[in-house]
Amino acid sequence: MAAAVGTTTLSDATPPPCLSPPDEYSLRILRLCAPDHLPHIHSALGSPSAVHPSAFAALFHACARRRLLFLGRCLHRCMLSLLPWPPDLFVANHLLNMYAKCGRLDLARRVFKEMPRRNLVSWTALLSGFAQHSHHDDCFGHLADMLPHHLPNEFALATALSSCAGAARGFRGRQVHALASKTSLDANVFVGNALITMYSSCYGQCDDSWAVFRTMPFQNLVTWNSMIAGFRQNGQLDRSLELFAEMQRSGFGFDRATLVSVISSCSCLQHCQQLHSPVIKTCYDYEVEVATALVKAYSIVGGGTDDCYGVFSWVREHDIMSWTGIMTSFAEQLPEEAIRLFCQLRYKNYSPDRYTYSIVVKACSGFATERHCSAVHSLIEKSGFGDDLVLSNALIHAYARCGSIVMAEHIFERMVVHDVVSWNSMIKAYAAHGRGRKALGVFRCMDIPPDSATFVGLLTACSHSGLVNEGRDLFNSMLKAYGITPQLDHFACMVDILGRAGNLQEAEDLINQMEVEPDFVVWSALLGACRKHKEARIAEKAAQRLVELKPKNSIGYVMMSNIHYDRGNLEDASFIRKDMKECGVKKEPGLSWIEIDNHIHRFSVGARHHPQRKAIYAELNRLVDSLKEIGYVVDTRLVHPETQEEHKEERLLFHSEKLALVFALMNSSASKANLKIMKNLRICEDCHKFFKLASSYLPKEIIVRDANRFHHFVDGECSCGDFW
């Protein structure tokens, strides 16, 4: 079709100054791309009649393969001065394909429109360009325009189907499937593979894609890979693994793509170990993509960090994704190892991306102080990611988890744009630090609709601050005002709110009204409230449900035993302890951590293996004597009644958080600053009173992060208001 009269065409448009004939540097690059045809261009620059159009076609093809848009446009300008316009169909198709592959779809359209003659290749090249660069509506429209002129071949149909998959337009995909059936191309392996991918991507289930797979007359490796990936993508992990086993029985081999998909389908440690064996046998453990998938799978299913690091160490050439993968596996369990790997990554001159930084920030949230978080924050700013929304949200969470609510506020306030995660992160930060009123204030300022996680944060804030009426109102407004159905997390928070306030019957009634089955967390909240208020009847029911849900967890046994002890039922308490021992259930030991001079020091009860144990005991006794003078009384009621009287006080004084505090006071560098201590369990009542008095006596702020929340001890008071 010729260009319309009066319109500007590619042949008569004045090109930009950069579109001069190729310079020497460009020619050197082209010499590497298409060495056989470059001499034709050299001679043509001196003698235009010597050039052959096929030379330009070959060079356009080389530019398309390597996405060399600038050189391709230079060649286009050169061709305009050497050959008559429009060029023949063969050259025009290569020019069109070059612009389409390089993403200049506007220029590809212009070339297409100015072509006096087009064939199936012309239509397919532009169709492919639309699909590759996610112009899905243009792709489907172009296919419709193509039908009056040419019937699409298998490559055009496969391209259109991939575009439907990318846009998740299942209805359009079915229309293309119907066209393929009418032209008898649905039996073609390329079209069949594209159909499997389209149906798996568009409908959230694999019935249609499985039907296509089973009816294909010929299947290749891509066919099996597409079906395995489809099962994995739609959460049918067992079917993905079963199909891989069938694939091996059928005599098909596997490649990198097969392994990446099937490894990602592992749902237990045994599956990972079984797949790890063929990976080693076929030497794919050296491949970075396969190794990264294995590391991720091991970390998800609870494999040891040694397994992850073993896989990582075998890779010959790492990339930033493999480094990010191994750091992800360490971020929660061993955050200090994740930080070490990050330092190693930078030493080897890899450039962290936003995903890498997000994992490092997550690791920083596992430390007692914000020192590491501040260092990574500085690197994020220097790397140009300071305004990144995801990283800003991660920093809010990390600073809050490290005890620095001030820095969390600073990050939030300087953000230009807030999404729902930003608001939720700030609400949860205030909740963890016992600032319920501030959390509610943030909620009132939200300029976007809340989601389910928003209300988890708000209800947690009410629970930690004793805001019973506010919690009730929020819980009741979820469905009525916001259309959000309460889930297990919301019920657990509401039970905690009511239970802490002593409304145990109302909390039990709420559980009985739940439409979903109460989980371990819900019953734990109720049992914890019963422990606080010494309510045995409801506690019996809650403890029984906990034991049924998690027989090896000690919470139900320990809390119920303590309730009986508090009520003087020593025989019942002893029976529960005996039953716990016979069932092989062990109580989780209390541990505390404190960071001093860039080193993390861990303390268990009694610190029996600490090299400075005697000095710590002596310093602890001096501090206890001083605190007793201002009102501290060891609450021996909290100790097991069968413990000998002379050892009861010792059992309480040797709690891990007290030892961590004393050790910090013994180090002059730490004693000058505010102290931050981490603990894996809930802080006991005696330690809570001890730290309140210590903050007044020393005087300094002491921050304790226990399993539930933060406690800021300042001038004899705690931020929790004795409500924890």
Automatic annotation (TrEMBL):
Organism name: Ensete ventricosum
Chain ranges of the DYW domain: 631-724
Protein name listed in UniProt: DYW domain-containing protein
GO BP, sorted A to Z: RNA modification
UniProt-listed SUPFAM superfamilies: TPR-like (SSF48452)
Keywords attached to this entry: Repeat
One Pfam family cited in the UniProt record for this chain: DYW_deaminase
Record flagged with keyword Repeat: yes
PPR repeats: 88-122, 220-254, 388-422, 451-486
GO molecular function annotation: RNA binding; zinc ion binding
PANTHER family, sorted: OS07G0578800 PROTEIN-RELATED (PTHR24015), OS08G0340900 PROTEIN (PTHR24015:SF548)
Classification lineage: Eukaryota, Viridiplantae, Streptophyta, Embryophyta, Tracheophyta
